[in-house]
Fold each of these.
Amino acid sequence: MSNSVVFDLCVIGAGSGGLSVAAGAAQMGASVVLIEKAKMGGDCLNTGCVPSKALLAAGRAAESARRADRFGIKTGKVGANGKKVFAHVEDVIARIAPHDSVERFESLGVTVIQGAARFTAPDTVEAAGESVVARKFVIATGSSPRIPAIDGLDDLNLLTNENIFDLKEIPDHLIVIGGGPIGCEMAQAFRHLGAEVTLLEMAKILPNDDPELVGTVRMRLLEDGVVIHEDAQVVRTSGTAQAPEVVVVDEDGREHLIQGTHLLVAAGRQPNVMGLGLEHAGVNFTPKGIEVDTRLRTSNKRIFAIGDVAGGLQFTHVASHHAGVVIRNVLFKWPSRTKLDHVPWVTYTDPELAQAGLTEAQARTRFGARVKVLTWPFADNDRAQAERETEGLIKVVLSSRGKILGAGICGPHAGDLIQPWVLAMEQGLKIGAMASTIAPYPTFGEISKRAAGGYFTAFLYGPRMRKIVGVLQKCF
C-alpha cells in the first residue's frame, strides 16, 4: 500500500463486529481497509466467548462423569489434567481462527493493516506508518476488563478474561470478584474442573436477570461447592501473587478474610476509547463509550461506532446486529436503525440462563397489574426427566391481551430454547402462535408450547366452557 490511500471504508478493530462489516462490505464491492493492533478475531475468539465456552465444556464433561451414577453408570475418580484442558481450549481457538485470519480477509479483497490506529483528522487515520483516508469509518475496538479501585489490588498477579486461559494448571483455590455472567461461568467451570472456588458479589449474582430464574443457578452453584458471598463489599486485598488474600465486608458490617491461590477479576468491562485520537476526529465520547445515534453515527457523521465501544449491551450478537445496520447505512444510504428491544442474552452456566425482552419486574413496573406470567417447570418435561436434567423453569411475561413482552428460561439448552420467543416478539406474534405450534415429542422445546398453552387453561377448562360444551352436546 502506498503512503496515502483513499478507501470507501476503514474499519478499526477486527473483533466480531468489525470483521462482519469488513467482510460484508468487501464482498459487496466496496474498497475496505481493516486495522487491528492485536489478534484477529478480537476478544470473542481469543479471550472471550470461544475459550470460555471451551473451558465450560471441559468442566461439564468432568461433572457429567461424576454424576453418571444417575444412569447406573460406574466411573472411577474423576480428575482434570490442566495442561490437556487448556490445550483443548487452545485447539478450539486454533480451529476457528482461520475464518478470522488475515489471509482469509485479504482473499476477500480487504486490505489488512496490523497496528494501532489513531485519528489525525476527521477523515484520516494513521496506523503502522501508513496514512489512511476513507469516505467512511467504523470504530469497532470493543472493550476491556474493568479493574475496580480496591486497595492493594494492583500489587497482586490478577487474572482477567484476557489471561486466565493462558493458565497451564487448574488453580487450587480461585477467588472470583464479580458475580455477573463471566464470574458465574468461570466459577462453575473451575469448580467442575476440581478447584476450590469462592465467588464475591457486591449485590446479587446475575443482577440483570429474573431473580426467580437466578435462584436456580445460585442453588446449583452452591450444590457444586462454590462458596458464594453476596452483598459483600471487597475493601482490600493483600498477600502475594501466589497467595492472594481478599477482605470483604458483609451486609452486617462484619469482615471476612478469604485466602486463595489465584484471583480472577470479573467486575464488568469498559469500552476501548482511549488512544484512538477521537478528539482529532470530532467524535464525542465518555468513559462509558462513544456517543452514537440510532443509526450508530457518531458526532462526526462519516464515522460510525459499533459493538462494545458504542456502550449499551455488550454481546457479540449485538455487535453483529450493529454490523448489518452500518452496512445498510454506508453502502446503500439506507437510514437503518438499531432494534434492540428483544435482544437475548445467555449465561452459560449449568443450567443455562437465557433472557429476552422484559423480565417480570420490568413489565410490572411498566404495565402494573395487567401483566400475566406463565411458567412451566422442566420437571414436567418428559425429555428433561429422561436426561435427568429437571432443574429450572420457563417464565413468559404477557400483556393482558396476550402480547409477549418477555421470556426467561433457566434449564438445559436455555440458549437454544429462547430463540423462538425472540422470533415471536420480533414478529409481533401473540401467545396463541406458540401454543398452537406442533412440537416434536419428546423434546426440551415442548416446554415453550406447554407454557404458552397455560394462557388458555382457565378458559378451556373453566365453568363457562363446560356450559358451552353441555349446550352443544344437547343441541347436536
Note: DSSP finds 16 helices and 23 strands in the chain.
Amino acid sequence: MTPRRGLFSAPLLAALATPGAVVFAFFFLLPLVFITGDAFVGHGAAFARVLGSPAFWDGVRGSVLLALSTGMLSLGVGFMVALHLSRLGQSARTALSFVIALPLTFSGMIVAYGFILAYGRAGFVTQLLGALGLEPAALAGFLFSPYGLAFASSYYLIPRVVMLLLPVLVNFDDRQMAAAASLGARPWRALLDILLPQVMPSAAAAFCLVLAVVFGAYGTALALVGTQVQILPLQLYSLVSDTGADFPAAAALALLLTATCSGIMALGEWIAARHDPAH
C-alpha cells in the first residue's frame, strides 16, 4: 500500500511555524537568557543567597502544600464533572463544556476580585449566609487564608482537569462496566478496577498540570492574601517590587521556579506518553 503523502510540503510547514518560533524566541528564550545572565552574576552567589534563606524554604513548604491541596481538590471535582459530562448527549455536553471552560478566559486577578465580591466580608454570598445566621467575618476570614486561596484557585483549575479527562471518559467503552456488573462486580469495584486504571495516565497528566500552574501563579494569591502567605511566587514578587533591590536573587528564584514547573510538566507528559497505546 502506497503511503499517503503529506498535505503540506516541508518549506510550507516551516513558513507556517515561523511566527510561533519568533514569538517563542522573543518572549521566552530571550528573557530567559537575560535572566540566566543576571542569576549567575558573581559566579552564582545569588543562588547561594536564595537557597540559604530560611524564607525560601518556608516558601517551598507553603507552595508544595498549596499545590497539593489545590491539585487534589481540582482533580477530584474535575473527574466527577467530566464523568457526568461523558454520560450526557452531544448537545448538552457541548453546551456545558462551553460554560465550564469560561473560567479559563479570566486572569488570576479577575478571579480573585470576583471571589472577594462574592465571598468577602461585604460579598453578596456572605450577606445571604449572614442572613441565615452565619458570621460574615468567619467566611471572609476563610477566603483570605491559604484554604480560601486553594478554593479560589480551583475555580480556574477544575476546568483544565475537565477538558483533559473528558475525551478519555467519552471514548471509554461502557460495555466493560456492564460486563463486570454481569459477572457480579459491585459498581465501586468496577470503577476501581476497570475505569480508573484507564483514566489514570490522563489524570496524572492533569494533576501535574494543575501543580505546575499553582506552583508558579501569583495573581490570585497576591489579590487574596498579599504577602501574608509564604509561597515562592509572592517571594519573587517581593524581590522585583519597589521594595526589592536584589535582582540577581530574583533572577535565581525565577530560574528555580521555571525549572520546577517545567519539571512537573515534563513528568506529566512522560506519564501520559508512557501509557499511550500509540507508543
Note: The mean pLDDT is 85.
Amino acid sequence: MNSIYHASDSRGHANHGWLNSYHSFSFAGYNNPERMHFGALRVLNDDHVAGGMGFSKHPHSNMEIVSIPLEGELEHQDSIGNKAVIKTGEVQIMSAGTGVEHSEKNNNSKLPVKFLQIWVFPKEQNIKPNYDQQEFPLEERLNRFQKVVSPSSSSDLGVKINQDAWFSMADIELGKNIPYTLNKKGNGTYFFVLEGKLEIDKQKLSKRDGFGIWEFDTVDVKASVDSKVLAIEVPMTF
C-alpha cells in the first residue's frame, strides 16, 4: 500500500469575502506542483458562500463536476436546461462533455451554504453534456459506506459519472471500525474527513484532512469520535 497525507492546514486558501474556499489540490491562484491531482481526481474544493452570493455563469468542458452540500442550499442553473436546488443529503453531478455553462448560487439570502466541489477527469472525451441529482437516506450511511457516485446507471448506486470512479460517504460512530473495499482493482481512494477523527492504515486524521492510498484491496477505517468521511475512488492512471 502507498499513501499520501494532506493536513487540513496545508490546503490552499482564498478568501474573497463572499467566497471562502480551501483547495486540496492546485486551483486558481493556488499552484502547488506536488498537489496537481490524485489519479483522476483533479479538484477538491471546500467552499463557503455567503448568503445570496454565488458563481455567475461560466463554461466547462470535458470534466466530471460533483457538488456535495454540507450545510445550506445551493441553486444550480445550466445551459442544457436544468434549474435545481440541492441540499444536505443530496449529490449533484454535471458531465460537461462537449461544453456547458452553469451558475451556482446560495439559495438563502442570509445564511451561508457550505459545499464540496469536486472535479474528476472523464473516461470519454466530448460526450453529450449530462446532469443528474439524487437524494440519499442519511440513515443508510451509518457505520457503512453508502455509494453516492458510480459509473452505473442504477440509481441505487448513486449518480452516474463518466469515469471508473466511485464516491462513498459514511457516518461512523465512536469506536466503530468499518472496511472500505475497492470497487475496481488498480484504483486508488482519497479519504476526506468531513467531521471528527479517524485512523486509516495507522494514519491519524482530523477534520478536513485528506489521505490518499493506492495499491490496496481493502482498508479499515476507525473512528475515535463520531465522524463523517467521504471516500473518492478513482483510477490512478487514465
Note: The chain has a mean pLDDT of 96.
Amino acid sequence: MFIAKRPLAFLIILCLSATGLLAQKTAEDKLQDKLDSYKELQSQLLKPTSNAQNILINHDQPDAHLTARNTGDNPLSSFYIYDSYIDRQDRVYLLTEYSIDVYDGTEWTHLDFGEEIPYEANSVYQDQSDNIWISTINGIFKYSTDLQLQDYNKSGFGCAFCQ
C-alpha cells in the first residue's frame, strides 16, 4: 500500500509543478505583451505631431524656464509665489522673491524690492481707510490706494504713525 501511494504522490507533485510552470509561463507572456504595448505606445508618444519643438523642463530648477516680465511675455516677477492678498478693490497682490506683483483685473503693477519697496516684503494688509500696509524684513510701509508710499517705520527708529 505504501509503495502504491508513492507513485501517486509523485504524480500529484508532478502535476502541481507542471500547473505552476504553466501559470508562470502565462504570467510571463502577459507581462511581455504589456511591455510590447508600452513600447509601442511610447514610440507613438515620442513622434512629433507638429513643427513645435519639445521643451524639456528640469524640475530641480523650475525658475530656470521663467520668462522674465520685462520681455512682456510674463507678468510675474518670479516663479515662486510666497504669499497672496486680495484688497477691497479686488486687486490681487502676489509676494514673490523679487517684488510684489499687483493685478487689478486688467493690468499688472510691480513693486520691486529695493525700489518701490525698500526691503523684501513679508506680508500685505489693508486698513479701514483703504491704505495698503506692507511689512518687510526691516519695517512696515504705508501706501495709498494708488500704491504711492505715504509713511514708514523702519525697525528700531521709532514709529511715525503709532499714536
Note: The longest strand covers residues 81-86.
